[in-house]
Amino acid sequence: MNIKITYNWLLDYLDTEADPYEIQKYLSLCGPSVESVEKIHGDFVFDIEITSNRIDTASVYGITQEALAILPQFNKKTFIKFDPLKNFIFKKIRQEDEKKLDIEIKDPNLVSRISAVVLSDVKIGDSPKKLKQRLLDCGINPINNVVDVSNYIRIALGQPCHIFDYDSIGGSKMIIRKSTKGETLTTLDKEKVVLPGDDIVISDANGNLIDQPGIMGAFNSSVKSDTKNIILFVPIFNGQMVRRTSMLTGKRSDSASYFEKGLDEERTEATLVYGYTLLKENARAVVSSKIIDIYKNKYKPRKIIVTFSQISNLIGQNIDKRDTVEILKRLGFNVTRKKDTLEIIIPSYRKNDIFIKEDVVEEVARIFGYYKISSNLQSFAYVPEQKDFQKINNATLEIKKYLKHIGLTEIINNSMISKDQIINAKLNENDHIKLSNPISIELEYLRTSLIPSLLVNIKNNLGKQDTMALFEIAKTFHRQKDDLPKETTKLTIMTNTNYFDLKGIIEALFSELNITDVKFEEGTSELLASKKQSKIKINSKDVGNLGLINKDIRNNYGFYKNIYIAELDLFNIIQESKKLPEYKKPSSFSTVKLDLTVKNLNYEDFKLKAFANSQYLQDIKVLDKYQDNITFRLFFSSYVKNLTEKEALKELVKIKKEI
Fold first, then answer.
1. Rounded distance between C-alpha atoms, residue 321 and residue 272, angstroms
2. Are 90-294 and 592-658 in the same CATH fold?
């Protein structure tokens, strides 16, 4: 965000010998970027870009604090002329008890502090020329001497406030609560806003909504030409809730830009007293109530300990110790030096961006001047990759190459999926880790399986080509108690042809990786059709499943054709792979080929029994399949003699008897 302030306004708080263009140059080097300086009406207007996490600088006084820290680095004498935070205090207001005001907070998470007071005998009119001109120079149109004060003190101190017409508040009571979905209010710009629900709202004792907090006031409680009594209201609302409502309703305001970035609760006192002072001067306002100040969880100063050696090491350059301490003090930190150690107390207005010692070091480097830090390349060091990682990475690359070469298409999906994808794939939502701040509802959960993503890929490409064979290699994330999620790399292959095509792809891949002792057993995956799936084992170790996606899932995705899928544990496959195949001595004698048709027999069972009952059986191939009948071709051979067909037939008879 950008703000505009004027040079003369800055000089209300700052005593400096720096001219406007020097301020632009030096602040831009070490702090907020002053994008332009424009001379208007005998004054100079700064257009300043504010860093997102430094909302404390988005005011005249905030820039004063930055200038106090930066300008002395360039030998420009700079002092605080007037400190509003120290001078504008509640004790300077003589409180009365003429008018009552009750503020009820239904949920303490909605607002962290509220300071308010009722002012009476207000005379509505034009603001003084100086105040109006400053607002105009900063891009704000003056309205009247009451409303202008709320805009003026926001620019001056960086704290939004709101002024209500006291007499329009039913029962003299303000109730801060969450909205219900569909509630409506008409804002100051006379637009009707329908609230999405769970928004911060203020209603009166009669149930009327009188404010859309942090965004825009309601028209029914606004200051009008006949207003006599007002409420000066200075809150610190929940920034996340303000931003949510602002984005969902499409209502943006300068105040929302402040609240959503997190404001300083300690500044409401000065804002209230300064606001009263201006209203007294410009609108003849008098105090007619007690000051209401609701502030339960007061700021507890954060302490950070850092050593001079840590500062030098992190910056990469030695900075004079006295200069370091002086920089930190000018930034508003309370610094206690104990030999080589600094104890630093963080002020309330920096609580949202200074958390650890590295943040403190960054501040020292910033004010010292990044441009002064020498640019030295770090020394290079070769860190060899661990052998296990080398094997996994090399094997993964080979697997990708092979699958592409046999006609499959690699897919790279996002690691996050939506709740709908989880439900459509019949997975358990509770097994998935939900992101606390997803960028979209389509990317809300970490995947525990690659299947939902590939099903979407298949669906999106249906009709574009008849045959599809896709694969993805990626990590899945599995919840662990009191620990980071367990990451498992999966290889998932999906096709819309048939079971045997998919099984053939997997067998061909295993052959390429020189993996032996592979078995396909009856599977039990709930994602797959009960009688059309297999569990894959290598050396008796489960490595995955393959089969037909079950009917319910196919219906959820609107598939009119069967979809077959295999999901494998990549690490286990790679662990079983070999660089070279095991040597098997070829027979120098002839091979006899015989065909055998069987019915209702599992291939793995047949293979196991056949090899167990024939010493000459060398290989088995599936030749054909029709309904429940499978025709196998059996290869018989001996390493010591030429087998006759009669001898091979005897072997076949032994196999038939066993099955």
1. 40
2. no
